[in-house]
Amino acid sequence: MAPDGGSSGLRVGVLGPLAVWLDGHAVPVWSPRLRTLLAVLALSVGEPVLYDRLATAVWGENQPKDARRALQLHVTRLRQLLRGELIRTVPDGYVLATKPELVDAVRFGWLLNAAERAADINVERAMLVEALALWRGEPFDGVRSAWLEGVEAPRLSARRLAALERRIEIDLATRRTAGLVAEIEKLTAGYPLREQYWGFLMTALAYAGRRADALETYQRLYRLLAEELGIEPSRPLRELHRRILNGEPASDPPTDARVPDSPSPRQLPPTVNHFVGRGGALARLDAYLPADGDGAPVTVAITGVAGTGKTALAVHWAHRVTGHFPDGQLYVNLRGSDPAGTPLLPATAIRHCLDALGMAPYPVPGDLDARAGLYRTLVAGKRMLLVFDDARDSHQIRPLLPGAGGCMVVVTSRDELVGLVAHDGARPLELDILTPQEAVRLLTVRLGAERVAAEPEAVREIVERCGRQLVALNGVAAHAVRHPAVRLTTLARHVDLVPTGRATSSDR
Q1: Among 90, 236, 364, 417, which is disulfide-ready with 301 (CB 3.0 to 4.6 Å)?
Q2: 3 state SS of 257
Q3: What are the beta bridge partners of residue 141?
Q4: CATH level 2 (architecture), domain 10-104
Q5: E strands along 47-134, which residues?
Q6: Is residue 194 a contact partner of residue 266, using CB atoms and an 8 Å limit?
Q7: Both ends of the chain: CA-CA distance in Å?
Q8: Which residues fall in a coiled-coil region (predicted)?
Q9: Does 5 score more than 70 pLDDT?
Q10: Which of 163, 182, 177, 178 is nearest to 125 (CA)?
Q11: Please, what is the angle between helix 436-447 and helix 456-465, to 10°?
Q12: Could you tell me if residue 335 is left (phi over 0), alpha (psi between -120 and 50 degrees) or otherwise beta?
């Protein structure tokens, strides 16, 4: 991201530690709140950012009495560091007026969108490589903002991981195997329960002539899933194992091109590394997988109270079965219970889906029915997995349902979605709190077996005081990881003082 000597204008880097250059010269921004302010403005470069959004990002829930006046003072200080005309005042907010391509996060998004529309697989790969090269570390490193950390950082990280997965898929399809095994091994170490990466590793090993290592990799995965989740690998992984065992090609012959108006989106956010239990729910989801493209699309409604892990279950399972849906996976957060914003309108949600399906450069109907009709036309005849997270109610979901078989829809919601079950044939899957055994297993995975075994009574007390809720337990576990010197007995007595996110966090 660092510009050369001939660069002009304001450049902002947020895909790593915040970095700012003006006409090729680094500009230090020491104030934490100015760093947050600039990062938020940069994400929406060229577009107005309202006072409320800026205040939420800068101060969170502890906003000053006159937040607008405080923002004006901070903007004045930021203007003193930068050219005055680069931050413009608009009604109810501000605009950062630099070229959008000079903000690394914006350029990253542009490159990924262009890669999805690329007709040639080599062009697509080149764009993905360029996009991934923009990353210098964790997004917004050194910028303190709960909003950026909880909303924008996960969104960018999810897109980065999806881009990396697609680049690996292309490398495997085109036999670019140099250094690939070592790269994928790092992914399996970082995301040990993400089966897709194990499939990548088995394929790369097979292509490298290491058939025995590929088969041993499958056995490692088999033992891991059995010990951690009590399940066996998904059907696509079992089929890959069979092909390698029989000496068959690990995948079909590579293709040299993609249809530019028919991308295969892969929008699933990352799954959690510490997913445990839920064997029964995973088995039920497996049983709902559509056998073929005939009949009506399958819809599953995962419901339950806040904190039970609905999103974690849906995303984890979706990653296990991506091979069953070769035409892609869509993911939309409908924000039905998000306290920081309003629920997504169905028309807006469909627009997100249309953009992912290749309609981004083209006009789409404004009318909801016409827009839904176009969406159903594009997914007709495809085998796609559609994950709609945090639905407010059945009315928000109904326009998003595809019209023909082949697709599978997974919806999560705190609402019971009675209308979706009664009138649209959705299969209900109500998620309860964790069992005591699952809760203890979660803490064991997060904290280590030795630490948990050393204080079993404290662990049981933490489990019960957290109500066996996934979000609360994860919050306590995160606190314990950050403070390894604190005994679990002490932590158990102060569970109520640990910020667990039970009131505001998503189910993840």
Answers
A1: 417
A2: strand
A3: 17
A4: Orthogonal Bundle (1.10)
A5: 49-50, 87-90, 93-96
A6: no
A7: 32
A8: none
A9: no
A10: 163
A11: 120
A12: left
**Average pLDDT of the chain to the nearest whole number:** 84
Q: Which of 441, 413, 436 is nearest to 426 (CA)?
A: 413
Place of tokens 């009506």: 296
Are the C-beta atoms of residues 451 and 485 closer than 8 Å to each other? no
**Nearest partner of 441 among 316, 279, 226, 274, judged by Cα:** 274
Sequence length of the chain is 508
CA 407 to CA 385: how far, in whole Å?
6
Beta-carbon contacts of 126 under 8 Å, excluding residues fewer than 6 positions away, are none
Cβ neighbours for 100, distance < 8 A, ≥ 6 positions apart: 45, 46, 106, 107, 110
The residue type of 460 is R
Q: Which two tokens stand for residue 110?
A: 């542009």
CA distance 294 to 3: 54
Tokens of 190: 């970082």
State the Cα–Cα distance between residues 313 and 284, nearest whole angstrom: 12
Token code pair at residue 138? 């964790």
DSSP 406: T
Q: Which of 259, 273, 427 is nearest to 328 (CA)?
A: 259
Q: Which CATH architecture has domain 116-245?
A: Alpha Horseshoe (1.25)
What pTM was estimated for this model as a whole?
0.55
Which tokens sit at 299?
Answer: 């819809």
DSSP 55-87: HHHHHTT---TTHHHHHHHHHHHHHHHS-GGGE
| Half-sphere exposure in the Cβ direction for 275 (13 Å, CA) | 31
For 116, what's the count of Cα atoms within 13 Å in the CB-facing half-sphere? 24
The superfamily (CATH) of domain 279-430 is P-loop containing nucleotide triphosphate hydrolases (3.40.50.300)
Nearest to 80 by CA among 22, 41, 32, 40: 22
Taking only the tens place, the pLDDT of each residue in 73-128 is 999 999 988 877 889 988 888 999 888 889 999 999 888 888 887 777 878 888 89
Task: Categorize the per-residue pLDDT at 6 as very low, low, confident or very high, splitting at 50, 70 and 90.
Answer: very low
Q: List the structure tokens of 219.
A: 């056995």
Show contacts of 250-255: CB within 8 Å, 24+ apart: 250/202, 250/203, 250/206, 250/207, 250/214, 251/172, 251/173, 251/203, 254/173, 254/174, 254/175, 255/121, 255/173
